[in-house]
# Entry
Amino acid sequence: MTGAAFAPSVAAQTTAVSPATPVVAQITAVEASLLAFVVLTALATALARDVLAAIIVFGAYSLGMAALYAFYRAPDVALTEAAISAGVTTVLLLLTLAKTTRIDHDVAFESVNVPAAGAAGILLAGLLLTMGDVPAVGSPDAPVWSNPDVTQWYLGESYAQTGVENTVMAVLAAFRGFDTFGEAVVVFAAGVAALIVLHREVFA
Amino acid sequence: MSDVRPEDDGDAAGADGTAVESTTETESDVPPHRAASRSGRLDSERRQGTPYTESQVIMPTVKIVAPFAFTYGLFVTFHGAGSPGGGFQGGAIMAAVVFMIAFAFGIEATRDWVANTVIVGLAVGGALAFAGIGLIPVARGGAFLQYDLLPIPVKYGLESVEVFGIAAIVSGVLMGLFFLLANGFNSGGDGFSDGTAAEEDVDDDGADELDTPDADRTAAADGGER
# Structure
């Protein structure tokens, strides 16, 4: 779904940035419900007393984040979030939990640690104070989008130089290919490290 | 993690050997593909003996979904140039298909089906392919990953890095992590840890049980993984 829907839009944005697009200040119903879902599942993950429940709600949180990324036209990030966070990480956490003991609980939620909640609240308030200077979502004047040296240069040049329509892949595999090579080696090293930590010589 | 452990669980989970022996004794009369009837909650000491339960819902569902999910993983991998995705996402989806099959048909059966050579070959081969594709232009006097020096068009150079390099590494390592975590810590003598280290661990757990309840709890949680 995302593959067909978003590829033309990326190509269209490459050719022309339309400054006439009005900055949408109001939040749509889909966006609001997704944001509420993500916040609620994040709170439930932090406060759930049962570890299995926390892992399952964490998977739901990742799925909500993936939908939110897709909603904000970041299908590459959405795919990664859905596959890695909602899928693979949940499975690996469940596998690890199966090796430990599950304890019966009388109450569903952890009691809130007041000093920790206060510290988190102060941090949240400090971050919210800066929100006035953050550009609106989708604003064509946002520096991360409108600067001609980085974003617009990549959007204009990636197809001409690599022949790849997906600018994200062009940046990852070509312009910053050496970084990506390092990341791939980090993934490989993670597998080797897991072998060493678990005292194994074979994966399967 | 601030839960207070029930005290009687400390002994069973502390020493791995006793836990495994007790489960095999109690469930010897149960067919190996059936889980023992257990009261209410899942409990790892009993689940160690029955890692796999046939489900009439999960197995047909996975049978139907797995080919499509694997095809979608291949699509995301091979069409990273023209649509969202790429080797990382596609490799993760393909590895997740193997996870799905393992949950439906048993981790041990899937472990036999996906040989260790396949996983190691994917991970190592992917790393070598990425490095090789990057080094070919260096051999021709260019820079690392300078795609226009490859004998193929630039677009297919990027695609080959995504398909043969990144997708192979990610799918191989994720499958390897899955089977490794399913196995858990190797306290036996079949890995490169010798038997004396395992015995020392058991002794540590036994000694810790005499300590404070808090230390006992951590030691038991630590030993439960082994």
In short: Residues 139-204 of chain A form one domain. Residues 75-98 of chain A form the longest helix (24 residues). The CA atoms of residues 27 and 137 of chain A lie 10 Å apart.
